[in-house]
Structures are given as C-alpha cells and as structure tokens.
Amino acid sequence: NAGVTQTPKFQVLKTGQSMTLQCAQDMNHNSMYWYRQDPGMGLRLIYYSASEGTTDKGEVPNGYNVSRLNKREFSLRLESAAPSQTSVYFCASRGGGGANVLTFGAGSRLTVL
Amino acid sequence: AQTVTQSQPEMSVQEAETVTLSCTYDTSESDYYLFWYKQPPSRQMILVIRQEAYKQQNATENRFSVNFQKAAKSFSLKISDSQLGDAAMYFCAYTDSNYQLIWGAGTKLIIKP
C-alpha cells in the first residue's frame, strides 16, 4: 500500500545511547518531515527536507541529525539520547501541486530512561 | 510568528449529535491553508478537511464541515451526526508559502453512546 513507513514503532533507550529512526515513502514526494509529539502539545517540526539532497532545521532540531538518503528515505538520528527526547516521532511527506497536504507515518514511540 | 490556538482541551458529545471544535490562528499572510487532522488511539494522523484561504466557500467533507472566518482568523470544525469512530484527538494546523505546518495543541473529542 502506498504511504509512509516508519521503523521501529517502539524503542527504549538508555541515556547516552544512539539510534536511528527510519522513514520511507513510495509516493514520489519531494518533501519529507520529522515531527515530535509530546503530551498536551501539537506536533513540533524537528527537521525537514524540501528535496533530495537538502535538509533544514525546524523548530526543535537540537540533539538530532537527519539524512535524506534518496528521494524515498529520510532518517532521523539521535546521537546521544536524553530523557527529554522521550516522545512520539512522526515522519511525513508532501507532494507537489500546492495542496500542502502531509501524509504521515504511523509514529514511533521512543522512551529514553 | 504564526500561531494556532485550540481553546478546548476536551469536548464531549452524544452520539448522533453535532459538535463544533474551535480553532483560531494568527498570521499576517493573506494566502495560506488551514487543516483539521484527526488522531485516533492508533496514533495515525489522518487528514479530515482542508481550506484554502483564498476560497470564501467553506470546505465540506461528508459529515465534516468548517466555518472559516478569515477576518476573525477563526477556523472551526463541525461534526454532524457524531459517530463512535469520531472519537479522537483533533488538531488544527496552518501553513503558508513556507510550507511549514504550525499546529494547535489539540482537542480530545469524546463520543458518548
């Protein structure tokens, strides 16, 4: 089925460990995004990639790095996880045409102990 | 800076009745998009409805409709004939030519059988 696939769905880390969240879309979208969602708050943009080969910081980029590996894949890396990064992470992609509609992955729940 | 405010943390409605969720936003732009997304317990973000600011006609999708008041910067969502499957978090979001979505904090909708 066409859409956005995120892995893993759940992950528990210890403080200081590193990990990468993977995201892939098969809709030939140019733009891809990583958000985090914390209780009582809306989604906050971590990083985005407007096109293959480009990445830009969003609202809350500190502690994260991203890679736009190709048009399909956009990964999010936590180099040294902190408890403040406990959250639910969403990857999304956006096609062209000006509709600005995002298609989301199912989310990845990350807990940092 | 653009902001999106959802003043109702939680709303409840009797099944088959109508409920309205509120959203206000702040922007100096004249051309932008507004969205309502639904997030059920499965965590998946699902687009409910979108509105282009240049269109005066309110968007409608089956039982879901919006009341878009551009001058008042208000964008409320009306759900008619509420169903148990409508129970979810509802997020209002805004984007302009920067294509960066700004999100409200969400409203939890409870459907009473």
Describe the structure.
The complex is a heterodimer of chains A (113) and B (113). Chain A is 0% helix and 50% strand. With 113 residues, chain A is mostly beta strands. In chain A, strands 2, 4, 5, 6, 9, 10 and 11 form a seven-stranded mixed β-sheet that branches. In chain A, a hairpin with a 5-residue loop joins strand 4 and strand 5 (43-49). The relative contact order of chain A is 0.34. The mean pLDDT of chain A is 92. By secondary structure, chain B is an all-beta fold. In chain B, strands 2, 5, 6, 10, 11 and 12 form a six-stranded mixed β-sheet that branches. Chain B has no helices and twelve strands. The interface between A and B is medium-sized, with 21 and 21 residues.
Estimated helix fraction of chain A:
under 10%
Please tally the β strands of chain A and state the result. 11
How is the quaternary structure best described? heterodimer
Write the H/E string of chain A, N to C: EEEEEEEEEEE
The Cα radius of gyration of chain A reads: 13 Å
Report the end-to-end length of chain A measured between terminal Cα atoms: 35 Å
Shape of chain B: globular
**How many DSSP-defined strands of chain B?**
12
Task: Provide the helix percentage of chain B.
Answer: under 10%
**What structural class results from the helix and strand content of chain B?**
mainly beta
The number of helical runs of chain B is: 0
